[in-house]
Amino acid sequence: MIPLAILEPIERPLTWLLEWLHSAIGLPWAWAIIVLTILVRVALVPLTVKQIRSMQHLQQHAPELKAIQQKYKGDRQRMNEEVMKFYRENQINPAASCLPILVQIPIFISLYYVLRDFERDVFPKYPGSDLGWLNVVPNITDNITDHWSGWLLVTIYVASQLASILFTPMPDPRQKWIMVALPFIFILFIVNATFPVGLLLYWVTTNLWTVGQGIITRRMFPKPEPPPKRSSRTPPKAAAEPSGDGSAAGTSVQPSRATSSGQQRVRRRKKKGPRSRR
Fold first, then answer.
1. pTM for the complete prediction?
2. Residue 88 and residue 166: Cα distance in Å, rounded?
3. Between residues 10 and 223, the one the model is more confident about
4. Distance spanning both ends of the chain, measured CA to CA
5. CA–CA distance from 252 to each of 128, 241, 242, 243 (Å)?
6. What distances in angstroms separate CA 207 from CA 64, 66, 102, 134, 167, one per listed residue?
7. With DSSP H G I counted as helix, E B as strand and the rest as coil, what are the percentages for the chain, rounded to 5?
8. How many CB atoms are located within 10 Å of the residue 212 CB?
9. What confidence tier does 223 reach under pLDDT thresholds 50, 70, 90?
10. Ramachandran region of residue 135, left (φ > 0), alpha (ψ -120 to 50) or beta?
11. pLDDT of residue 259 exceeding 70
């Protein structure tokens, strides 16, 4: 009962919005869930833009971050300190990339509870309404494993999840492989749980939105160029412009070897002088 009490402030707006989409606009319940999903994703657009910028910024500095981790791999505490220092110096917020997902998790769980008691609490208020969808899904409150259409949605879910991962920038390749494995692990979960079709419909719509969003944001926010590599080498000095007398300004002209040797010969002759006649 504790999770229900915590999620009740979210469940009530979701239930009211579903009823409003069905009664005021006249959408079937399944389409109401799809529109509800789109409205939620539209509300999360500012957080999504922040997430994309943060991930691109982190990906831009990934080589430097990897060098720090490699340098202090023997001392984990020092490595964490240097990584946090690097985040502060470059104004990187690694938690910003998780904000949209963290917001969607309570909405997803709340919708699960709404659909679980939907036939008892909401559906009787609207006699004559249909819980099916496009003559494919017989009842959005049924378990996924009760009908072949549920398995069809599972297939669409896996494909859309993989496509959404493809269009989501991730600086760490290991994180990407973990995200690829998640939909297949999720299949094992939904087979052994009472997972309503309507909830999976919400998830599939979210993934399709993410795919379209990834295509658009790749054009709006192109991949930034990596920062210039720092080097201890000083840049070569620019060549000085020649002055009026033909010599470079600010430089002393060294006498050539021929000139210096000639002066030494003259000095030697002067020292010897002419021979005195006896």
1. 0.70
2. 29
3. 10
4. 136
5. 101, 14, 12, 12
6. 32, 30, 15, 20, 11
7. 70, 0, 30
8. 14
9. low
10. left
11. no
